[in-house]
Design goal:
By secondary structure, the chain is α/β, with parallel strands linked by helices. Among the domains are: 1-64, no CATH class; 535-666, GMP Synthetase, Chain A, domain 3, CATH 3.30.300. The protein has 22 helices and 34 strands. Helix 1 runs antiparallel to helix 5 (50-61), helix 7 (124-140) packs across helix 8 (157-169) and helix 21 (629-636) runs parallel beside helix 22. 51% of the residues are buried. Bound molecules: 5'-O-(acetylsulfamoyl)adenosine. 5'-O-(acetylsulfamoyl)adenosine (7RM) binds at residues 276, 321-323, 398-401, 423-428, 451, 513-515, 527, 530, 536, 541.
Length: 669
């Protein structure tokens, strides 16, 4: 069934009931573009009749086993959000089985392996059989509804199958990005109390192998939670093996049936946990549930990207991030799309990789992070020009602000000024895209550097420090959301109070995003960045406190403070100020900075290693002992001439010491 027909079928009843039909031409309802043509009608409708809006969409778009009794039941004060209560469904059935019935031989996955030209295709029918086999393996290992399964895998069909097999049997997946260290993996396994872990012998990225199984073994030395490890064969190289605990995934899958009844799930049962960084050292297990998440991922995928049947959708994010969950897996598959799984890196074998892939796979939609765009700008336009990009219809971006220069390059050089550039703002916690230039009112010109327009049903507001909502335009403020939406996170695993504290207590009755934003004269949004201690490095979200606690483990370190500084390519770079204990004098500075870098690499992962480590005798602190991070940020950004008011510092002379050391250190990096 075409998405055009499906869309009219799901929205028409709502329109009829609300007599909007009078100013709504039926022939328009048959076209997806009606959302653009009547954007303000749709948008107002979605906010003013939100129960009807989301209720009709859920009823029509999802396959239910039992219809829901009520659309929504939310309490912002207590952080309780329930959508489609009473309803029962299975997410895996919705994203796989439905399409096997209508189009079994359609390609669901194209695995773009590290080595270009070796892609593998998986049809919906094959996907179902793989998922069912894996689901049966998990069941045979005692995994039951509600149990947590950790996934530490390269981007691959079996990684997607692992997620979907969990969904099929009602287990809760926790995908951990395969670039995380053993310790980071262990703490996430412990927090979730995952009983089974799925991994690969090794990963392959940019021509290098990554010892995934060995890292898993190290992680499991320190936890008793996991009793079974399923290992996918990626390279086939010999890896450490524990016969009591480890199972070869492909062997086990061959021994079980290729059909597996999908478990009946309640709308509000957990679908997955995804750990993300906050402003304290401990990562948060963000919990998403079944129906609301799926509906939101599905609808945003179709409307923001203007997805049409037959499109080849390439979101090159890793499945270890929310972008991979929503726009590699759940969104595209719910719409019966062909989704590309990108295992490699943008510069392998050379910086033309993305565009060579686009031409080879005839990709229509390409969705990446600004850091990758900036990296490729530096590499030169010839890498883009070399390849035929005529299949491309839309270019997307997510993860951090897409600066105007990068926007222009993406638009002109990659898209030949022919493909809309869609800068999407959203978060792990929001489940799906919240602000984007599409669907857009008719005739609206894109604004470089602006995600622009809230999605249907999304009610963003800007507030000032006092928590007052700013109603006028041409202002900056803290970005909050006033109305609940189905895709939002439901809790932090095991710590609902932290959920409340982080998102709902600073401004009562609002969801606080942690980002600052500007609303321009036309009412369009631009994101200015985090207002808390979370930084965005190479598209990875990282808490400064996480890096600090790793650095502080070094025996010679007394104290550290980590800030970000503007970085041409990474968006933000990591800058660590470190105070050594007296014992630190026994080693050379290079020895110490190298070993600090090593600790960060082992505790978190290579991507978190600071670009700059500045050894300093003191940190600028207020009399109450709070580090004045503003000063550290200014120095790191080479803006120390304009430090603002430092009169509340206990010892203002520290600033000069740091400035001097910064200039000395800056010459060395
Ligand atoms: C999807 C994702 C969320 C944080 C968010 C922002 C930043 C994301 C944009 C952006 C400017 C954008 N989830 N962010 N998208 N900033 N423009 N289009 O990235 O949980 O990992 O990160 O990322 O600060 O709060 S995330």
């Amino acid at each position: 069934m075409s998405s055009v027909v499906r869309f009219s079928r799901l929205l028409a009843p709502a329109m009829v009931r609300h007599r909007l039909m009078s100013n709504f031409r039926p022939e328009k309802a048959l076209s997806l573009s009606s959302v653009s043509d009547d954007h303000s009608v749709w948008y107002d409708y979605s906010l003013n009749n939100s129960e009807q809006f989301w209720g009709d969409l859920a009823a029509e778009r999802l396959r239910w086993r039992r219809p829901f009794d009520r659309v929504t039941d939310c309490d912002m004060e207590r952080g309780i959000f329930r959508w489609f209560d009473g309803g029962q469904l299975n997410v895996c059935e919705n994203v796989v089985d439905r399409h096997v019935t209508t189009d079994p031989d359609k390609v669901a996955l194209i695995w773009e392996k590290d080595e270009p030209g070796e892609e593998e295709r998986v049809t919906y029918k094959e996907l179902k059989s793989m998922v069912c086999r894996l689901a049966n393996v998990l069941k045979s290992q005692g995994v039951k509804k509600g149990d947590r399964v950790a996934i530490y895998m390269p981007v691959s069909p079996l990684a997607v199958c692992s997620m979907l097999a969990c969904a099929r049997i009602g287990a809760v997946h926790s995908v951990v990005f395969a670039g995380f260290s053993a310790e980071a993996l262990r703490s996430r396994i412990d927090d979730a109390q995952a009983s089974v872990l799925i991994t690969a012998d090794e990963g392959v990225r940019g021509g290098k192998t990554i010892p995934l199984k060995a890292t898993v073994d190290k992680a499991l030395e320190g936890t008793a939670a996991v009793n079974r490890v399923l290992v996918m064969t990626r390279t086939g190289n010999v890896v450490p093996w524990n016969t009591e605990r480890d199972i070869r995934m492909e062997d086990a899958m061959a021994l079980v049936s290729e059909s597996c009844e999908a478990e009946t799930m309640d709308s509000e049962d957990n679908l997955f946990l995804l750990y993300t960084s906050g402003s304290t050292g401990r990562p948060k297990g963000i919990a998403h549930t079944q129906a609301g998440y799926l509906l939101y991922a599905s609808l945003t995928h179709e409307l923001v990207f203007d997805y049409k049947p037959g499109d080849i959708f390439a979101c090159v994010a890793d499945i270890g991030w929310i972008t991979g969950h929503s726009y590699v897996v759940y969104g595209p598959l719910s719409n019966g799309a062909t989704t590309v799984l990108f295992e490699s890196i943008p510069t392998y074998p050379d910086p033309g990789r993305y565009w060579e892939m686009v031409s080879r796979l005839k990709i229509t939609h390409f969705y990446t992070a600004p850091t990758a765009v900036r990296l490729l700008i530096k590499a030169g336009d010839e890498h883009v020009h070399k390849y035929d990009r005529s299949s491309l219809r839309l270019l997307g971006c997510v993860g951090e602000p897409l600066n105007v220069e990068a926007w222009q390059w993406y638009n002109l050089v990659v898209g030949d000024a022919r493909c809309p550039v869609v800068d999407t703002w959203w978060q792990t916690e929001t489940g799906g895209i919240m602000i984007a230039p599409k669907p857009a009112p008719n005739g609206v010109k894109p604004k470089p550097g602006y995600p622009m327009i809230p999605f249907l049903g999304i009610d963003p507001v800007l507030v000032n420090e006092k928590g007052e909502i700013i109603t006028e335009n041409d202002v900056s403020g803290l970005l909050c959301v006033r109305k609940p939406w189905p895709g939002m996170a439901r809790t932090i695993h095991g710590d609902h109070n932290r959920f409340l504290d982080t998102y709902f207590s600073r401004f009562p009755s609002l969801y606080f995003t942690g980002d600052g934003a500007r609303r321009d004269r036309d009412g369009y949004y631009q994101i200015t960045g985090r207002v808390d201690d979370v930084i965005n490095v190479k598209g990875h979200r990282l808490g400064t406190a996480e890096v600090e606690s790793a650095i502080d483990e070094h025996p010679d370190v007394a104290e550290s403070a980590v800030v970000s500084f503007p970085h041409d390519i990474y968006g933000e770079g990591i800058y660590a100020y470190v105070i050594l204990k007296d014992t630190g004098d026994l080693h050379s500075q290079t020895e110490i900075t190298d070993s600090i870098k090593n600790i960060v690499k082992h505790r978190i992962g290579s991507f978190a290693v600071p670009e700059v480590i500045l050894l300093t005798p003191a940190l600028p602190k207020t009399r109450s002992g709070k580090i004045m991070r503003r000063v550290l940020r200014k120095v790191a950004a080479n803006e120390a001439d304009d430090l603002g008011d430092v009169s509340t510092l206990a010892d203002p002379s520290v600033v000069d010491v740091i400035k001097k050391r910064h200039i000395e250190t800056a010459n060395n990096y």
